Amino acid sequence: MNEFFLLFLDKIKNYNWVDHLGLWSSIILPFFNIPLMLRLVRRKSSEDLSLIWVLGVFVCLSAMLPDAWTSPDFTYQVFATINLLFFLGVTFLVIYYRIRKKRS
After folding, report:
1. Which own/partner contact pairs does 86-89 have at CB distance under 8 Å and 24+ positions apart?
2. DSSP letter at 30?
3. pTM beyond cutoff 0.90
4. What pLDDT shows up at residue 3?
5. pLDDT > 90: what percent of the chain?
6. Is the CB of residue 90 less than 8 Å from the CB of residue 54?
7. ∠ CA 51-77-15 to the nearest 5 degrees?
8. Hey, what CATH topology would domain 2-103 get?
9. DSSP secondary-structure letter at 87?
């Protein structure tokens, strides 16, 4: 973990304020999936979200990830990785509640 932190600091040491703004926004933006996940859990339903939309977004994010990891743009790498991880939670919950509803 310490090596990851040192690598992170090395990558951003020459960033200007615009680069820092973009990087921190790319880290913070995926966290806005948390209220959506909490709402799904609280309501125990995913009816208000289209399954096609959720799966479409997940497939597109997954397809973008290899490009992000090979990109020299560190902000893009961070955003694509964190966003996919958080949206994976949304996708899991939507599918879980759809399966659960069909069994009821």
Report:
1. 86/30, 86/31, 86/33, 86/34, 87/30, 87/33, 87/57, 87/58, 87/61, 88/58, 89/33, 89/37
2. G
3. no
4. 79
5. 66
6. yes
7. 140
8. Monooxygenase (1.20.1280)
9. H
